[in-house]
Amino acid sequence: MKLEDLGYNRQFETYRLEQGLEVFEIGRVVAEHKERYAVNTLKGEFEAEITGNMRFTARSREDFPAVGDWVALTAYDPDFAIIHQILPRFSVLKRPAVGHFGEIQIIATNIDFAFVVQAGDRDFNINRLERYITICHSSNVHPVIVIGKTDLIDDVKLNEILRTIKARIPNVPVISISNETRRGYDEITSIIKNGKTYCMLGSSGVGKSTLVNNLSGKTLMKTETISESTNKGRHMTTHRELIILGNGGILIDNPGMREVGMADVETGLETTFDTIIRLSQNCRFKDCTHTCEAGCEVIRAVENGEIDRASYGNYLKMQKEKAHFESTVAERKRKDKMIGKWVKNYKKNVKKNGNGYTD
Ligand SMILES: Nc1nc2c(ncn2[C@@H]2O[C@H](COP(=O)(O)OP(=O)(O)OP(=O)(O)O)[C@@H](O)[C@H]2O)c(=O)[nH]1
Ligand SMILES: [Zn+2]
For binding GTP, which residues are annotated in this chain's numbering (predicted)? Predict the structure, then answer.
């Protein structure tokens, strides 16, 4: 294996030489879990932490490594290393951190292309598509639109979709595919190149996993657990989030990816549905959901045709998505906290009784 197979390129190498980083190992972060990183290097995979100095001087989340990063590190044990520096990223996929106002969460870095997948059936939504494309452009990731499940629609419907896209998003390549008939697979594979990094964006159920599995042609690393090292009390169990596709492309797939679409739901909704937002300020109730309330200005506007009924429906749907997303995040946080408590109790009991049980 060469570092280039993991996505290393001339820019990174130039930087490494300019900065005199020759004494370090170079590797790519393939997974992250609570400030522990799995890093792939020419010498194999290391579990790594950042230097105290890096942590001390970090001003924001962006100063910590993320999946996709190239880092300079020093190996200590056969499987443990310290990260000294993050090489400059050429692209960063991020979203506002939920519950931490003004903070951002990095989902992945150094991605060349994003396949933005929408199914041609019910899922197709030009506003949402536009939102994903905007995210790609602002992250410096090249988008490729993929219209999936074309086996479920006829050519008339497909052509209508393609026309809609051409009118609204004219400069992004579009590929129509089906995971059933494998239509469009040639086109997809011709875009995937050795040493380039890809990700899949799109709603749940549009066929992203099926596509990735078919492209890789084998069981993916995603489902594999990174070996746990328990020496010196270190312990890391996580899933690799960076996988090598059948034809040498690199795919980053992590839970954060699934949340990218929700990234700027608030601002997205505000720009797309500014009329609704503006009118809603005059609703009788402050917490009006604009679905059934008396004195709702939005419902009034839908009824008198001031607001398009379909766009109103889309607005409600996205609000629901957003509420669902927020409740999932809250639930996850609650669970993390609970597990944290258990671990703490367990440790306390170990100290007291020599075992983890409460007496
Ligand atoms: N008819 C048809 N069904 C498909 C196609 N691709 C995927 N499916 C089905 O759609 C469902 C969802 O597919 P997934 O690949 O799991 O979708 P996903 O986008 O990865 O969904 P998440 O994992 O939730 O993000 C599965 O039941 C697939 O069998 C397709 O091209 N045509
Ligand atoms: Zn209202």
Answer: 202-210
Angle at 183 between CA 179 and CA 189, to 5 degrees: 85
* 126 in Cβ contact with 168 (< 8 Å): yes
Is 199 part of any known ligand binding site?
Answer: no
The CATH fold of domain 92-261:
Rossmann fold (3.40.50)
Architecture of the CATH domain 3-86 = Beta Barrel (2.40)
Q: Whose CA is nearest to atom 9 of ligand 1?
A: 207
Q: How many CB atoms lie within 10 A of CB 278?
A: 13
Question: Mind listing the pLDDT tens digit for each residue in 226-237?
Answer: 444 444 444 455
Residues with CB under 5 A from ligand 2 (ion): 283, 288, 290, 296, 298
Task: Confirm or reject CATH 1.10.40.50 for domain 265-353, answering yes or no.
Answer: yes
The one-letter code for the residue type at 200 is M
- Write the pLDDT tens digit of every residue in 292-333: 899 999 999 889 877 777 778 877 877 777 777 777 777 777
Ligand 1 centroid from CA 121, angstroms: 12
CB 326 within 8 A of CB 332: no
- What is the separation of C-alpha 94 from the centre of its chain, rounded to a whole number of angstroms? 8
Q: Where along the chain do its domains lie?
A: 3-86, 92-261, 265-353
Q: Please, are residues 276 and 298 in contact by the beta-carbon 8 Å criterion?
A: yes
**ipTM score for this prediction:** 0.95
Per-residue burial over 183-204, b if 16 or more Cβ lie within 10 Å, else e, is ebbeebeebbeebbbbbbbbbe
